[in-house]
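Today's session is about reading a structure prediction critically. Students often jump straight to the picture, but the first step is always the sequence itself: look for stretches that repeat, for charged clusters, for runs of hydrophobic residues. Only then move on to the predicted structure, which in these notes is written as discrete structure tokens rather than atom positions. Here is the chain we will use throughout the hour.
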Amino acid sequence: MAAQRQYEELARQLSAIGAVKRGLGRVLPPECPAGSAAVLTLLNRHGEMRMSRLAELLAVDMSVTSRHVAHVAERGWIHRDPDPADKRSRILRLTPAGEAKFEELSDLSMQALAHYLHDWSDDEVDQLSTLLARLRDSFGDCRAASARIPQSSQCSQPSQSPLSPHDVQTSETTRTPA
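Below is the predicted structure for this chain, in token form.
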């Protein structure tokens, strides 16, 4: 079990991840900000879906999701087709132009990572990826209200409830194509 000082250092390092994400965001073209890139990434990863599902995966409010969707739709990167099961809803799916834009963003992100991590070994990159995935899985589905830590919980106590496969699967939130 980690000591309090280790958790404090981890908290400092995790807060610095925001700077890393902003650095990766700077490689995105101006016409495709991070929110738009996230929409394209999730539609590429999960396929067509309703706006409500996209909002859930983005872990943002429907109004924010609507703005992101409008932005990518205006550029022809997605289609918004009526949902045959519910005419009030729309099914979102990538267009060929959206798939091409996703590939472009993915290439830009990979180039940026290769640039910034040029002096890392393959094993170090693999280790970081493995540990970040494990950290994400340890948090489970952070969007759920039940994922909140009870007030009586202490930092030194491990979680008593193992993750279900559903928790691991739905813990995938948005990530730009990095």
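Discussion point for the tutorial: Residues 10 and 16 are 10 Å apart (CA to CA).
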